[in-house]
What does this fold into?
Amino acid sequence: MSVTMPEVAATRGQHAHAVADPLDGAAVRADFPVLNQPPVEGRPPLVFLDSAASSQKPAVVIDALTDYYTRYNANIHRGVYELSEIATERYEAARKTVARFINARSARECIFVRNTTEAINLVAQSWGRANLRPGDLIVGTVMEHHSNLVPWQLVAAATGARLAHVRMTADGRLDLDHFDVLMTEEPKLVALAHVSNSLGTVHPVKELIARAHAVGATTLIDGAQSVPHLQTDVRDLDCDFLAFSGHKMCGPMGASVLYGKKALLDAMPPFLGGGSMIRKVELDGSTWADVPAKFEAGTPAVGDAIALAVAVGYLDGLGMERVWAHEREVVDYALERLREVEDVMLFGPRTAEARSGVVSFAVGDIHPHDVAAILDEGNVAVRAGHHCTQPLMRALGVVATTRASFYVYNTLEDVDRLVDGLHRVNRVLGGKRSVAPSAARADEPCRAQWEQADGGAKVPAEVPDVG
It folds into this structure.
C-alpha cells in the first residue's frame, strides 16, 4: 500500500509563484472555504477579523486532515503494520517541517503539544520545578497573555520563587529601562511574548534575550502571535524556549509546538507520565525515552500534526516576508481609517511598523461587547473582552477592548467594512451614552444596562473571552 499526501497539497494556495508581489489578500481568501460560503440571505459576505484568536484554515490543510483519517489513520511508533508505519513517517516528517520553519538545529528540539498554554506549562512544571529555588526571580511583563502569567505564578508558589513584571510605556511598548533595572537582580528566568496579543506591539526580543543571557537568565518566548506572521529563526534569536500555536497559523486545533534547546530538554524531567515517554518501566521506577518522546506521553494528535506541517508549507509558499508586508499594508490603512470614527480610541503603538496585525480600540463609552455585536449584524467578526490579558487591561484603565486582527486573507476592503460598521455603532448607540457614561469601564455590556433602564428587557449573555 502506498499513501501520499493529497495532490491538492502541491497545487492549491501556492501563491508565491501565482500572485504578483505584494500578497493579494483577495486571491489568498479563495483558498479558505469558510470565507467563501454564501452568506445568509440579506447579509453581506463575512469579514473575519479574529485571526489572533484562531485563524481560518485553507482547503489544503483541511484536505490533509481528511486524508489522514480516510487513508492511513493509525496509532504511531509501536505498530509494525503498514498503516502505522505510514502514519509514523508522516508524523515525524511533520516535526522536521516545523523545525525547518523556525530554523531549529534538530527536529528533536520540537515537541508537539496541544497549544501554547500547554507548552508554557510544560516548561514551568518541568524546567521550573527542577531549577527554581526560594528567592529566585522570574521576570515577565504586564502585557503577557494569562498563559504566560498563571503557570509562573503556580510554579513560584510551589518553589518560593519571586515574580516581577516589566512595566509598559504610555504608547503600549515595554519600558526597556525598567527591564534593565530588573536585569540587575539577575533573574533565573525571563518569559515574555514576542508580540502582544492585545495591542499587537512587537517587542525587540532578540535584544532582550541577549540582555537576559548576559545576567545568566534562561529565556522563554511566547511566539503565539509572532510565528504565524513574521519569519522566525530560533538560532538568530537565541531563545532557550519558544512556544507557538498551530491553530493561529492556518493549522488545525490540537497541534502546536514547544521548541527548546536540546541540552535543556535533555536535562528536564518529564511533564506527563505514561505510554510513549518511557524507556523502561519497573514496578518501583522507570527510565525515560530521549527527547522529544520524553515530553509526548500518550497518543498524540497525529492527524493534526501532519496537517500543521501542510499549513507551514502553505505559509512558506506565500512567503513569510510577503505575509508580514501584507499585514503592514492592511494595518497601516486600518490605523488611518479608524481615526475617522467618532470617539474612537486606539490602544498600542501608533504606527504599523511597531505592531503586528492586531488593532485594539474603544468607541467612546460604548461597551466592547456591544460594539462587537453590532459589527456582527453586518457580518464583521471581531473579538471583544479582556483577551486573556486582565493585568494589561487594568494598566490601560479599561476592563475590555474591541480587537480586530488581520491576516493573509484580509484586504483593504475588509477595513472599509469594519469602519462602516463602527459608524453604525455610533448611530445606533451613540445617543444612549448618557445612560451609562462609564460603560467601557464597567464589566457589563451597555446594551444590557440600557435595556434595563428602558424597561427591563432581557439581558444578553456575556460574550466569552478567548486570547
